[in-house]
Design a protein that fits this description.
Layout (H helix, E strand, L loop, with lengths): L1 E7 L3 H12 L4 E4 L12 E3 L2 E3 L14 H9 L7 E3 L6 E5 L4 E5 L3 H11 L4 H15 L21 H8 L3 H7 L4 H8 L14 H13 L2 E3 L2 H15 L3 E3 L4 E6 L5 E6 L4 E9 L3 H5 L9 H8 L6 E8 L8 H8 L18 E4 L19 E4 L1 H4 L9 E2 L1 E7 L14 H19 L8 E6 L1 H7 L28 E3 L8 H17 L1 H12 L2
Parallel strand pairs: 1-2, 1-12, 2-9, 4-16, 6-14, 12-19
Antiparallel strand pairs: 3-4, 5-8, 6-7, 10-11, 11-12, 13-17, 13-18, 14-15, 15-17
Helix pairs in contact: 1-9, 1-16, 2-17, 3-4, 4-8, 16-17
C-alpha cells in the first residue's frame, strides 16, 4: 500500500503529526523501531509498581490551558482523566544547608503572593518578570490565540521568529531585573525541565516551559501510559497504520530525487509521497546519502549541542504519610513554623528539588552524587489507578550527570552492573536522609545511566532531552531541501510534551497551510 505520509518514530511528536495529518484526510502510517509506541513516555511496571519515565507532570492542563486545548485538537482529551498536583505545594525547592524551603503553589496569583511574601524587596522585579513571561508566550507560534498564525512568521526564514530565540537568554533577563540570591535560584530551578543552563536557554523557550507550570500542574490517571493509550486509540479510529518493531534502515528516493519511501531492517518497504522524521537530527542524516544535503547543513546538524546526561533511580516505597520536612527546614533558620505554612502531609502529586550545597553550581553534573541537584518525582503515585488496591506508584529520582562516552561504563574496580547498584544505593540513602518519612521501606527497583539514555534516545552522548535549545544555536526547521521530507520533534520546536505537540503543529502547518491548522485549533477550542 502507498501512503500519503510516513511518520518515522512513534513518540509524542510522531503520533501527534499522524493524528493531525489524518484529520486533514491523509492516509498515514507510523513506523517505530520499539515493540510499543512512545516507549519513553509510557513508563513501566515492575513488581506491580508503576514508574514514570519520560512523563513526570505537565503544565497548561487547566481547562482552556494551552496543553488542554492541544489535547482537544488531537481528539484525545475525552480519553484522559486529569489529576491535579497539590494546589499549594506542587514543587518544593530545598537547600538543607541554608534552610531554603519554598513550595510553588499553582496559579500566577498564588505564586506571586508567595514569592512576594518571601522576597518583599523584589516585588516590582517579580511583577515585571511574570509580565515578560506572559508577553513573550503570546508571541510564540501555536501557543496562544492572539492573532491567526502567519506562515512567514514561522520557521528559519523568519527574522522576527528568530529574534525571539536569539535575542537574549534567561540569565540576561534576571540580570536586567537585578534578581539574585535565593529568588534567582527559584526562578532558574525549572531549567532542569528543558536541560539548558540559564545562560544558554533563550528566554522565549524558557517562558514557554514555565508559563504552563506557573498556571497549573497535572498528571493523568494512569500516568504517561494513559497518554500513550489515548493517542493509539484515536490513531486507530482515524485509520492510521502503526508498524512497531520496524527500524528504518534507509530513506529511499525517487528518480527525480524526492522522497519515495523507507526500507526497514526486517525487509519491509513502505512507499509514500511524503515523510515526517521525528528522529534525532543526526540519526536522520544516517538514513540518507551524503549528497542529499549540503555539507554546511550536515555540519550544522552534526554540531548541535546536547542537553546534559542524567542518572535516574527508580524506587518503590511503603505507603507512609506525614512529613516533617517543612518543620525541620524552618527550625534550621531559627523560625517557629506556622501550621498553615507547612507542606501538606502527603507526597503524592509533588516534586522535590534538593539543591547542592552553598557555593556549588546548581546544575553541575560533576559533583559527587551526595551533593548533586536531586529531583524527586512522585507522579507515579498521583497518577496511579486507584481502583486497583494492589497498584502503587513508584518514585523517580533524577540527577544531572556528565555526558556518556562509550567505553567508560566499566571502571577498573567495578562492573557496569555493580556501578549501577552502587549509584542506586547512594541515592536511596541520600533520599532517606533528606526525607526520613520514607523510611527503611524505600528500595531501589532499577537504575538508568547515560548508557541507557544513549540506547533509548538514539543520542550519542546519552542526553536526557536530546538536542538542547540555546541562544546562538540554530536548530533545524521543519522543512528540508529534500522534496517531501519534513522534520518534527523537540529539537525543532521546544522541549517536553508541549514542545513535541507544537513541533507537530508547525510541521503539519507547513504541509497543509498554517491557516488551516489555525482554523482547526480555533474550531476545537470553540472560538
Amino acid at each position: 500500500m502507498k501512503y500519503d505520509y510516513l511518520i518515522i518514530g512513534a513518540g509524542i511528536s510522531g503520533l501527534s503529526s499522524a493524528l493531525l495529518l489524518a484529520r486533514f484526510g491523509f492516509k498515514v502510517a507510523v513506523v517505530e523501531q520499539a515493540p510499543r509506541p512512545a516507549p519513553l513516555v509510557e513508563g513501566f511496571v515492575r513488581n506491580n509498581v508503576y514508574f514514570e519515565t519520560g512523563f513526570h507532570y505537565a503544565g497548561g492542563l487547566e481547562d482552556g490551558g494551552v496543553l488542554d486545548l492541544n489535547l482537544r485538537l488531537l481528539g484525545i482529551s475525552d480519553h484522559l482523566q486529569k489529576v491535579p498536583f497539590d494546589l499549594k505545594v506542587y514543587d518544593t525547592v530545598v537547600q538543607p544547608e541554608s534552610g531554603l524551603n519554598f513550595s510553588f503553589p499553582q496559579g500566577y496569583a498564588a505564586l506571586g503572593d508567595a514569592l512576594r511574601e518571601h522576597f518583599p524587596t523584589q516585588r516590582q522585579a517579580l511583577s515585571e518578570y511574570f509580565e515578560r513571561i506572559q508577553q513573550i508566550t503570546r508571541k510564540l507560534p501555536y501557543y496562544c490565540f492572539p492573532e491567526p498564525v502567519k506562515p512567514e512568521d514561522l520557521g528559519e526564514s523568519s527574522a522576527s521568529g528568530l529574534s525571539l530565540l536569539h535575542e537574549y537568554n534567561l540569565a540576561q533577563v534576571l540580570d536586567e531585573l537585578a534578581i539574585g540570591g535565593e529568588l534567582r535560584t527559584l526562578l532558574q530551578i525549572h531549567c532542569l525541565l528543558h536541560g539548558s543552563l540559564p545562560s544558554e536557554v533563550p528566554f522565549a523557550i524558557h517562558a514557554g516551559v514555565v508559563d504552563g507550570y506557573y498556571r497549573s500542574a497535572h498528571t493523568f490517571k494512569g500516568g504517561g501510559r494513559a497518554l500513550v493509550t489515548a493517542l493509539v486509540t484515536v490513531l486507530k479510529q482515524c485509520g492510521v497504520d502503526l508498524f512497531c518493531r520496524h527500524r528504518v534502515e534507509e530513506i529511499e528516493l525517487s528518480a527525480a530525487g524526492a522522497f519515495a519511501g523507507v526500507r526497514c531492517t526486517n525487509g519491509v518497504k513502505l512507499q509514500a509521497s511524503g515523510c515526517i522524521s521525528t528522529l534525532h537530527p543526526q540519526a536522520m542524516l544516517k538514513l540518507l546519502p551524503a549528497s542529499v544535503f549540503r555539507p554546511v547543513y550536515r555540519r550544522r546538524l552534526a554540531a548541535l549541542k546536547e542537553s546534559p546526561g542524567a542518572e535516574i533511580v527508580f524506587l518503590r516505597r511503603e505507603r507512609k504519610r506525614g512529613s516533617t520536612l517543612g518543620v525541620r527546614c524552618e527550625r534550621q533558620r531559627g523560625i517557629t513554623p506556622r501550621v498553615d505554612s507547612l507542606p501538606v502531609h502527603n507526597f503524592q502529586g509533588r516534586n522535590f528539588f534538593f539543591l547542592p550545597g552553598s557555593g556549588k553550581a546548581m546544575f553541575d553534573p560533576d559533583l559527587p552524587l551526595s551533593e548533586r541537584l536531586l529531583y524527586l518525582n512522585f507522579a507515579g503515585s498521583a497518577g496511579s489507578d486507584a481502583s486497583d488496591n494492589n497498584w502503587e506508584g513508584g518514585v523517580t529520582a533524577i540527577l544531572p550527570a556528565p555526558y556518556y562516552e562509550p567505553g567508560t561504563e566499566v571502571s577498573a574496580t567495578l562492573s557496569y552492573a555493580e556501578r549501577k547498584a552502587q549509584t542506586g544505593e547512594l541515592v536511596r540513602k541520600r533520599i532517606i536522609e533528606l526525607l526520613p518519612e520514607l523510611g527503611p521501606g524505600l528500595e531501589v527497583e532499577c537504575v538508568a545511566t547515560g548508557k541507557t539514555l544513549q540506547r533509548i534516545n538514539a543520542s550519542a552522548h546519552g542526553s536526557l532531552y536530546g538536542v538542547k535549545h540555546m541562544v546562538g544555536q540554530f536548530n533545524p526547521s521543519a522543512k528540508t531541501r529534500l522534496p517531501g521530507l519534513f522534520l518534527a520533534g523537540q529539537a525543532t520546536a521546544a522541549p517536553g510534551l508541549l514542545g513535541a505537540i507544537t513541533s507537530a503543529l508547525i510541521t503539519v502547518g507547513g504541509i497543509v497551510g498554517h491557516d488551516r491548522v489555525e482554523a482547526l485549533r480555533r474550531d476545537t477550542a470553540g472560538l
